[in-house]
Design goal:
elongated; mainly alpha; single chain
Length: 73
Amino acid sequence: MQVKNVPPELHEALRRRAAEEGVDLQVYVLQALQRDLATPARRLWLRRLNRQPITTGLPPATEVLDDVRADRH
């Protein structure tokens, strides 16, 4: 795989980060890609989150705010 048109400042930042981690640039970029793919895509995560029932056990925020405002008066 080749990545073209990488801005010089990005390439330098990646090179520095790889050096900090004690690996070469190829290994660092491969690890970064693996980390990225190990987490669900943002849209998929949001879709899953929206399917979850709300189970906080707390009253709605609007109710809490109304109570606080009522206590002020």
